[in-house]
Task: structure prediction
Amino acid sequence: MDALSLLTTRRSTRPLGLPAPDEAQLEAILQAATQVPDHGLLTPWRFVVIEGEAAKARFHALLNETVTQLNYGEETRKKADRVAAMAPLVIAVISTPETQPPRAKPVWEQQASAACAAYAAQLAAKAQGFDNVWITGLWVNSPLLREAMHCRDEDKIMGLLMIGTAGEGHEDTPKNTDLSALVERW
Ligand SMILES: Cc1cc2nc3c(=O)[nH]c(=O)nc-3n(C[C@H](O)[C@H](O)[C@H](O)COP(=O)(O)O)c2cc1C
Result:
């Protein structure tokens, strides 16, 4: 698929199964994620890759423990089970803003760069034939997940990218956005 077709037809899909990206494909996804606009070249993001049985089990346990710790109840526990089983590969995108002068740029700009990194990773996965969805939910604020991912106070888990392959027969339907209300031409 050429780049413009990718950009104008990308959609999110869940749940996702195998195959998942192999090592080289994962490397390409992470390389794409690190080529994003970055004011001051601060590399204000990092990634946690969750793949394989042991890592997925650890992730699931952390989601479950979050439900228990924060008293979220049984409905949310079922959601935790669904999130843990949503895709064979999960990439957490973490914003790691530089806050010390003189290098620091506004935190929102650094978070915007991290959001770009997440989207670039989504596109790179799609370009290699892998479906995906960016989720957050209450999970990204989980103290347990934040601790396990070594987040400092100023760090933010921007998203959990769920990556794999959609079920047979799945096709992305472009949104065909009506631009008239969104674009002003000067
Ligand atoms: C920052 C961010 C957080 C999101 N969190 C969730 C989420 O927790 N759960 C969910 O189902 N979709 C979430 N989404 C939306 C999906 O990623 C997706 O964009 C949406 O389902 C629309 O599908 P589309 O990308 O095909 O238009 C989030 C999107 C963004 C940008």
